[in-house]
Amino acid sequence: MIFSDHISVKLGGDVNINKNSLPENRYPIVEVSNVRKSYMLGDMEVPVLSGINLKIEKGELLAIMGPSGSGKSTLMNLIGCLDRPTEGQVLIWGKDLHSMSDEELARLRGIEIGFVFQTFNLVPRLTAFENVLLPTFANSRSIDPQKRATELLKLMGLQDRMHHRPGELSGGQSQRVSIARALINDPSILLADEPTGNLDSKTGSEILQIFMDLNNEGRTVVIVTHDPEIAKYADRVVLVKDGEIQYN
Ligand code: ADP
Ligand code: MG
Fold first, then answer.
1. Which residue's CA is minimally distant from atom 26 of ligand 1?
2. Which of 152, 204, 221, 239 is the most exposed place for a label (fewest CB within 10 A)?
3. How many angstroms separate the alpha carbon of residue 74 from the centre of ligand 1?
4. C-alpha dihedral over 104, 146, 133, 56, to 10 degrees?
5. Is the Cβ atom of 72 under 6 angstroms away from ligand 1?
6. Dihedral through CA 119, CA 124, CA 127, CA 130, nearest 10?
């Protein structure tokens, strides 16, 4: 365990928002219900997901596996409210995304969901510290975002890299910055889409360990990965294949 002694204190320490507006105890964090998703290629409709049902409970570590092109990223983008389904519902804390205005949805996404990508998606011109702070400009529930950004970067072992730009960081360091960024608003759920896909296997294991530690401290984590190791630690592994979820 890299930082399990301190993580809950540090991560929850200065969070200052009333979550009572969300009925979080009565509902799963995420419920995907009869979701279909197609993309339009010219005037041809290409179905990607057909009839997905999935509930994600608070505190769960869920691994999503499946062949390339099977729709894993499409599903993650729907769970993360980055995209809307063609049919069916995505509910966050029991609330239908369809019933929300764009503004409400953006706030929900900014506060409740932390996203980590395979290619890190850091802003090249900003330092590590500025990248971590970036999401707080739109929405924040921290009373002192700068302090929190500093603490998160320290927690990720990057205290001496805070003022470096992404071009001066290794892949593993870049991914740690992007995990810190995903945690800056203390989200209910952390989504990671092949977060080790661009890393060597040793660095990849270290990054996976961070997600497992975060989950052990109570954070809900959904991870898309090809790493069979994760199956040992995940509460559930689901396989996406032919546009559907195949449960074991
Ligand atoms: P995975 O993450 O499992 O590799 P994706 O969800 O990225 O799969 O993609 C599933 C299928 O949807 C692929 O065939 C891909 O080409 C197609 N697809 C993904 N995004 C788009 C898009 N924006 N427009 C058209 N087709 C897309
Ligand atoms: Mg993908």
1. 39
2. 239
3. 6
4. -50
5. yes
6. -80
